[in-house]
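From the methods appendix. Each design record in this collection lists the tokenized structure first, followed by the designed amino acid sequence. Records were kept in a plain field format so they could be parsed without special tools. The example shown here is representative of the layout used throughout.

RECORD:
FOLD TOKENS (249 positions):
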């Protein structure tokens, strides 16, 4: 997900401060994109290792855990990016200070980023719990499956909000808009993650997942979508959605 890039700097507003802010946002966007690309790539690798039975369970879990770290990092950077898109009034040439956190519940882009970040944190709980040994099916579903599926729901909600953001309040298609493609590909990844999450439920009678193949291949395909979405995001440069220049006295 990327902030809406429909609004551009007004020509009169491209002064020193605006250029500096634009460079800052581009760096944040690249960092966010790289984090999601790495997270998606590592999740895809972990799924392949699990499906093919290559390496130990610890190796698979560590691969997922590191991938989850990059997902969380990308989610946080996205909140920072969205928080720095909307700027307060300032004098021409004045560089606004960096916002490392913001609370903008009425901004749909911020809502999407915040829900996505919450989802990555729920994934982190699940990934850490996966290292526990000797869990009963009930404990496994409570500590691993429940945070995982809840995180998947967060990803779906975040993707829906992002689609509303890039389509001006309603879900639609904008095939000529790179930002829309980033959101659409990520939302496809969220759907695949959700299907894999459902299949990961542990059956009490057998202590096995509902469908191990769907868990692994659904995770792999969804992770590839996020990795591809991250690469595309690198080329979707964000710009402020509102630029207000305060006149000098």
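DESIGN:
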């Amino acid at each position: 997900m990327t902030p809406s890039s429909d609004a551009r700097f007004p020509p009169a507003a491209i002064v020193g401060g605006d250029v500096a802010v634009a460079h800052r946002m581009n760096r944040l966007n690249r960092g966010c994109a790289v984090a999601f690309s790495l997270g998606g790539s590592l999740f895809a690798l972990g799924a392949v290792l699990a499906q093919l039975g290559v390496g130990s369970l610890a190796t698979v879990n560590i691969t997922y855990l590191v991938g989850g770290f990059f997902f969380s990092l990308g989610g946080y950077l996205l909140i920072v990016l969205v928080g720095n898109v909307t700027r307060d009034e300032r004098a021409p040439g004045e560089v606004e200070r960096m916002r490392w956190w913001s609370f903008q519940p009425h901004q749909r882009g911020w809502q999407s980023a915040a829900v996505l970040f919450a989802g990555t944190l729920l994934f982190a709980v699940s990934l850490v719990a996966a290292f526990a040994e000797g869990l009963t099916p009930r404990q496994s579903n409570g500590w691993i499956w429940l945070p995982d599926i809840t995180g998947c729901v967060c990803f779906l909600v975040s993707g829906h909000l992002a689609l509303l953001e890039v389509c001006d309040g309603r879900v639609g298609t904008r095939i000529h808009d790179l930002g829309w493609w980033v959101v659409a590909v990520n939302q496809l990844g969220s759907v695949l993650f959700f299907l894999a999450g459902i299949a990961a439920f542990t059956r009490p009678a057998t202590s096995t997942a509902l469908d191990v193949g769907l868990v692994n291949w659904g995770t792999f395909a969804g992770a590839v979508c996020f990795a591809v979405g991250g690469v595309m995001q690198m080329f979707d440069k964000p710009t402020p959605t509102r630029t207000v220049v305060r006149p000098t006295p």
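APPENDIX NOTE: The longest strand covers residues 202-203.
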